[in-house]
Amino acid sequence: MIKSVISDYLKQNNIGTKLEHPSVEKFGDFAVRGDVNFSDLEIIEKIDKVAGFSNLWIKENILIDEAKNILNDEFKKELGDVNKDKKILIEFSDQNTHKELHVGHLKTMVIGESVARFFEILGAKVFRANYQGDIGPHVAKAIWGVQKLLNLQNETIDEFNLKSNEVKAHFLGKAYALGCTDYEDNNKSEIDEINQKLYQKDDKTMVVYKITRQWSLDYYNDFYKRFYTKFDKLFFESEIAEEGKKIVENNVGKIFEKGEGGSIIFDGEKYGLHKRVFITGVGTVTYEGKEMGLAQAQRQAFEFDKAIHVVGNEQAGYFTVVIKAIELIDSWFTNKEFHLSMGMVNLVGKKMSSRTGDIVTVDSILDETKSEVKLLLKSDDSNQDIVAEVITIGAIKFSLLKSDPKQNSIFDIKKSIDLDGSSGPYLQYTYARCKSVINKSSVNSYELRVNEKFDENELPLLRYFYQFSEKIVEAGERYSPAVLAEYLLNLARKYNEFYAKCRIVGEPEEGRRVFLTQVTAKIIKEGLTLLGIETVEKM
RNA sequence: GUCCUCAUAGUUCAAUGGAUAGAACGAGGGUUUCCUAAACCCUAAAUCCAGGUCCGAUUCCUGGUGAGGACACCA
């Protein structure tokens, strides 16, 4: 009974599973595990789910149509309806001016950009926002350090200002580290004074502040370009601080309350969370307080349906409290604010810290990876530098995207970025290989016959294509580009396997096989684009 | 101390209650008169421990153990 119901169901839906497993009992063209024992309906659901994920066996005609849809971009139309008319604000926010960029920041930038692209292909209107800390003690420390270092070098800030973005940024990083070590030892009061002056907009301090702030911004801008990210708007702490403070003050007695020493706090404990200080006893607004202003500023810039804050998971507790406060102040924000909690990037054995200098700077990764890529390049490439750059960025981005963003990851400085195996270059290489085959073949487009038979080497590849759309949707729903990254790797492996076994050009099967190659190339290119990675035609 | 994550081959990661736990790196062995060897093929190698729920648990629950993080004037 069960068997016939399932069998009919599977046949109707053109679904079946592989037959080879020892624990399956055969019947007709289809199979199911032998030891099942629940109602017909339940088992159909289960099988459907299992079959939907792997070993799916759909009639070839359906598969061929799917593949054709990919080639002529039809699949994009369907995807565009998934999040149609949704407005998503994505905030990249763990950078501070006056500090150096490290791998952790890179992860935010790379994942944020990719998630943005997923929402775009799924039909949403996306607004990329960048939120940076350009005021506060860390800035004071850096400024203090800059002044000290310039004195030592006998150089004025205007002279130094003529140097390259990179030099200035590293100098600033060094100055910040110096400020940090000295803060603990003996110059606490001096640095605190600078911090006060920053908030009071003291003229002399502001001169140095403005110049050094620009150093950071210019430097970051270079990276945004190199990593194919651009922002619709930059939000700065210094600009929203006042508004945030006002909002907090206006809600004292309602949402906020007086804490110890004249501070203003939010008592999250009423909601099962914890208490946090929004305005300090001295009257300066904290990060939490500023967030109240940021929410409003972001709403003003873009009336979003959802705001996604791409920030490390160490901020998870912080965000639950802050989001609660935002929602209580203005119910418009209810269920719109979302913290995309990302795992941290740690160094082998220790935590990364820009205070102690235990960081892997973005420059060092770029330089090291690029020089390694250049060693692998064939010498007859005319535009070597462009190719090397695309592969370098691809390798770095992919290494950050290939695992679930929520997981913490470990970065090993000694083991540089992967260039083979499960890597960006592996995909780029497979793409270039496909292009090479396509160029060698005289077949441009091949009209597949009705009931065209694909042989045993071709079929595994054909069966893989239809999953492309599904994986994009899944990756979007889970905020996990890794889902697609994994799929692309598997597809590329399938293709390379096929390539190793079958000749394409000049064979009787050339038409079909070029078709498969074209679809593979198309998926890899579109897929990599979603990950924010470019391809090269030759490598 | 309270709370939150997490624990899978030597290493880095997959597996959203289903079939034989899947890759990559590293280790060992092999493939190029032939469309790109950044590739392909073969071998060895893993679910932290103890209970529970279920026909079925890496996945859910409880308790251990271990790692990371957050817990009032930092950002």
User: Quaternary status of these chains?
Assistant: single chain
- Average predicted local confidence, pLDDT: 85
The CATH superfamily of the domain at 362-531 appears as: Isoleucyl-tRNA Synthetase, Domain 1
Q: Structural class of the secondary structure composition?
A: alpha/beta
Cα separation of the termini: 57 Å
Main β sheet profile: 5 strands, parallel
CATH class placement of the domain at 362-531 = Mainly Alpha
Rg estimate, integer Å? 28 Å
Number of helices: 20
Q: Specify the CATH architecture of the domain at 362-531.
A: Orthogonal Bundle
Question: Your description of this structure?
Answer:
There is one protein chain. This protein has 539 residues and is an alpha/beta fold. Among the domains are: 2-57, no CATH class; 137-224, no CATH class; 362-531, Isoleucyl-tRNA Synthetase, Domain 1 (Orthogonal Bundle). The chain has helices spanning 2-12, 40-53, 60-71, 74-79, 103-121, 137-153, 157-160, 165-185, 188-200, 203-226, 237-250, 287-301, 316-329, 362-376, 384-401, 424-440, 459-465, 467-477, 481-501, 510-531; strands at residues 24-27, 30-33, 87-96, 125-133, 233-236, 256-258, 264-266, 276-279, 306-312, 337-342, 345-347, 409-411. Helix 13 links the parallel strand 9 and strand 10. The structure holds one RNA strand of 75 nucleotides.
